[in-house]
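Table S2 (text version). Query chain:
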Amino acid sequence: MNRASVGQGWGVRKVWVIGGVAAGLGMGFVMLLVVGVYVIGGNLANGVATGGRGLAKGAVPAAYQNLVQRWGNLCPALTPALLAAQLYQESGWNPTVVSPADARGIAQFIPSTWATHGIDGNGDGRRDIWNPDDAIPSAASYDCELAKYVKDVPGNTTDNMLAAYNAGAYRVIKAGGIPAISETRNYVKRIRALSESFAAPESRIDPSRQAAGAIGFAQSRLGTPYLWGGNGTAAEGGRFDCSGLTKASYASVGIELPRVANDQYNAGPHPSRDQLLPGDLVFFSHDLTDSRAIHHVGIYVGGGYMIDAPRTGAVIRFDPIDTSEYFGATRVTEDGAKALPTKV
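Corresponding structure-token output:
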């Protein structure tokens, strides 16, 4: 189901994914979960973000991809993925949204802040708070101004920049780092984690330790009739739509995903097709350049197949993933899911 709605700091860790699923509906194959132990190290350089990281395919809408890629490399403390995470957090890529605090546009500038920090990004002689061609460069420029203000503060420059964006540079300088404000600390952690969903992975991505349990939940619902908007409640006869099933599957192992498929895409990094592991969410879109156009999601189980709730009149079943609308995959992480804004 998909309806419109308005860094992970990786420490070294071990995770285990163990399990299996039975042959599906007479298809004559057995899909086994991978058994493995993976160890992965942090991807971020000490002090600043890795400046040249590319963007994951389709994670940024095509209309804004070049802007984010270009301006996200404006200074060493910023990356395209961090800039994308901030824009998604602020507006969900909506260039016309207005917040209750009168923050405006895709970058959610308050008019008084725009008056000081807005720039003419497209060189047309105007600084238009509503125009992404101005607002996205302005967001990057503002980040880099803040990075200059806090460059001599102890700690990670990028983290201090994000803290200054949330709490103001003065508080960061006075505190000698990220101030002891829960909202600010959560903001830094959230943007860092969310940025992993917008960055093209540079190394192997560790599997989720909850993957087997999520698959087990979905497998237990095989044969259940589809229900558009279904969340599996008793009143709905335990029926689901596609994103209702994936949400419930991961909720069964303690990870809360958003309700709609195109937001679930941002719950972690994106393995390539040849890197898929059981438990990854797999997504399908009418527009392969834009994750906001995703309309379907399933849970990968191996062998080129997923468990999904496909459509009205069908049941939860195994389906192949290799279709013309295959968009990509997400390896769900706890931090990635927690980083997602409640409304986008």
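Notes on Table S2: Residues 36 and 96 are 46 Å apart (CA to CA). The radius of gyration is 21 Å.
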